[in-house]
Amino acid sequence: MNIFIMRHGQAAPEASTDALRPLTKQGKDEVCLMAQWLAPQVPKFDRVLVSPYLRTKETWQQVSKYISASEVESYDGLTPNADADMTASLLLAHGDLQPEANLLVVSHMPLVGFLVESLCPAIMAPIFVTSGIAKVSFGKGLGGVFDWLEGPHNIQSHYHGGFQGLRSLG
């Protein structure tokens, strides 16, 4: 099983509530860049779990332009300060049912970092940039392996044109 953990794209700094903060134009561009980079590695997700917040829903909308999913579900346990151990248990239970699955989780800091730590106890919680994606893999009878964490600032040099708004990322 492979679990891909993604932080939402850059969001507007203010809205009537934190849950209603939308993605900015740069946030949408970041997400599209990451989705284009990820698509050759994962042509389809078996399941996608998305936080109920607007910016994560919009993040999945952008990703879904490049990568399809068999099942998409909004999950209340993916808010910024949710319990990472509970979420990890849910993901592992899904993996027991579909051991070859590719799962995507779209959520927020600090949960995304703590989720990696919960799935891979030897790893300290990493810091995700906006639109950052981590991959954690599970082999038969093995615990979670932290494969990588990438963000738009690392991969943008591989893409020319179309992402001019991301120049400020490095």
UniProtKB/TrEMBL annotation:
SMART domains: PGAM
Keywords from the named record: Hydrolase
Coiled-coil blocks: none
Stretch forming the signal peptide: none
NCBIfam families (UniProt xref): sixA
Entry protein name: Phosphohistidine phosphatase SixA
Organism: Oceanisphaera ostreae
